[in-house]
Amino acid sequence: MSSHDSEKVAKLHRELHSHLPPAPALRLKALETVLVEKGFLAEDAVDRWLDDYSENVGPMNGARVIAKAWSDPDFAERLAADTPSAFSEVIPGIADGYAIVAVFNTPRTHNLIVCTLCSCYPLGILGMSPSWYKSTEYRARAVRDPRGVLAEFGTVLADGIELKVWDSTSDRRYMVVPERPSGTEGWSEDDLAGLVTRNSMIGTVRDLSPAKGAT
Amino acid sequence: MTPPEIGPAARRQRDGQSAFAEQWHAQVTAVVEVLVAEDKLDAAAWSQALGAELDRRSAEGAPDTDETYYTAFLTVLETVLDKARMAGAEDVDRRESDWRNAYLSTPHGQPVVLRG
Question: Would the CB atoms of A40 and B99 count as touching at under 8 Å?
Answer without folding.
Answer: no
